Amino acid sequence: MRVIVVGAGLGGLALAHGLSRAGVDVEVFERSPAADAQPASYGIHINADGARALHACLSPESWAAFDADSAPAPDVVHFRDQKLNILATLDRGTTADPVVRRRGVRRQALHGALLRGIDGADDTAGIIRWGRTFTSYRIRDDGRVAVAFADGTTTVGDLLVGADGSNSRVRQQYLPDVRRLDLGIVNIAGRLPASDAAGLPASLLDGSVNNVVPAGPGWMFASTWEHDSLVWAYVGARARYPDDLDGRDGAALRRLVLDRITGWDPRLRHLVADTPPDTVAPVALRSMPVLPVWPSGPVTLLGDAIHNMTPMAGLGANTALRDADTLRRAMLPLVHGETSLVDAVARYEQHMRGYANPALALSTRNARNAASGARVPRLVFRALLRVAEAVPPVKRALFPDPAAPAAQTVTASH
Fold first, then answer.
1. pLDDT tens string 38-79
2. Fold of 2-73+97-180+288-367
3. CA count, 13 A, side-chain hemisphere, 71
């Protein structure tokens, strides 16, 4: 059994670890020329599903590296008005389980832990092939998959896994009709050293999630990672931004946000004003549609390659890690000769759609609600938040546990 993984992102690397530890011959092909060529990015929060998947896939040494490079983060979401008054707080509590506790980690640190032991940098046998850009695949008469790369090289495996991100070339060939949707929403995001955020409420700096919900248009997200960087994002419909938004530099984008939060708490205005302009950028929000059912075979997808979603639920990276463990577990009976490749892939895809579709729906709904400028629905939502804070059953109904959403799938042709 040989598995070819295209893409050395979080999900692809977690899968490579899990399959290698199960005795599967796996090789990862990544278009970046080297590990340090990966683009810089903000941190992520690892939830119970993501942590459980990492623990299952990684070696003890790689898990220890991740554990050392991450920091505990409370599983708490605050909703505030534009004056920073609490509207409602959702506290899912803490766990004594050291595996599934919520963590904040820089993406680069997590990526480094995932490279440990498989990139060949520490005198181990590397299974990552850098500088190899996927171009196409072909299913041979014997059912195996021949994969071609831009440098003219090819390789053959029993299973091809597209883990090559939101613009996945594997998906474009395999499921050409499944395309990302532009939601018409843009986040203007920035990052401020936490040491420069003096005067803000402690919960904006402790790793919890904060949503600022004004009475009118606009919405702001703010949280810290590893207690040293405060990331914020102002959410708005693209139609309400200037036409030249994408061409503006960080300083101009920062001024634009300041113009839109006039009258907000001075501490929030200082947060934006003090943010280094080179960290401020527009981020267009896109999402995959509801995933249909397709015939399974020797090609499959994981992570952003199949269910790219908005960041408005904090589930994207965690869902990719969950994919890796789900596919790993689906492959174990195949390794032991107890099922066929097609059945193993079908089991993975069915399970993946069961949790990915609700995550897609939640992240899209959150983004659209945040970007809405309709005053009456916003006022109703703020009133609901206040009621939820006072009446626990209303809070449970308003904020169902995302760890166990109902499965949603639809049937469509390949």
1. 554 568 899 999 999 999 999 999 999 999 999 888 999 999
2. FAD/NAD(P)-binding domain (3.50.50)
3. 17
